[in-house]
Amino acid sequence: MEANPAALLLGLAASAQDLSDRDALQDLLARGHRAWCEGVADVQSGIRREAADLSDAQVAERCAAAGTAWEQGMTRGEAVSALAFATWDAAPAAMAYTELEERAALFGVCLLGEELL
Predict the structure, then answer these.
(1) Residue 33 CB partners (closer than 8 Å, separation 6+)
(2) CA angle, 9 as apex, 6 and 40 as ends, to 5°?
(3) In the chain, is it the N or the C terminus that has fewer CB atoms within a 10 Å radius of its CB?
(4) 22-54 pLDDT tens trace
(5) Coil, strand, or helix at residue 73?
(6) Kind and range of the H or E element at 43?
(7) Nearest CA-CA partner of 60 in 73, 44, 76
(8) DSSP string, 4-20
(9) Could you tell me which residues come within 8 angstroms of residue 85 by beta carbon, excluding any fewer than 6 positions away?
(10) What is the CA radius of gyration of the chain?
(11) Distance, first Cα to last Cα, the chain
(12) pTM (2 decimals)?
């Protein structure tokens, strides 16, 4: 990837603001999707490292603070994954990807080609 995922997503979303060309939007969306996946993986790795030194109660507190509960029946790993996703989802880069998706959708562009719909 040519830049860190967060910087790339912010740049792609900014580039998409004035675009109406479907092919260009499709390209930005595909690049954005790859960056989004890399970003969420990076956050998940970081959260896993941080959570390794935390007690279950501390992980539960972090989950609650991020707006995701450690629900009954969830494993510690599932709770940490939910925490990582909630943390990423609240990040400006993830929000930028949502804006990119919405801009692309205005012109009928999505990650799945029409032949798959």
Answers:
(1) 97, 111
(2) 55
(3) C
(4) 999 999 999 999 999 999 999 999 999 999 999
(5) coil
(6) helix 22-52
(7) 76
(8) -HHHHHHHHHHHHTT--
(9) 40, 44, 68
(10) 17
(11) 29
(12) 0.86
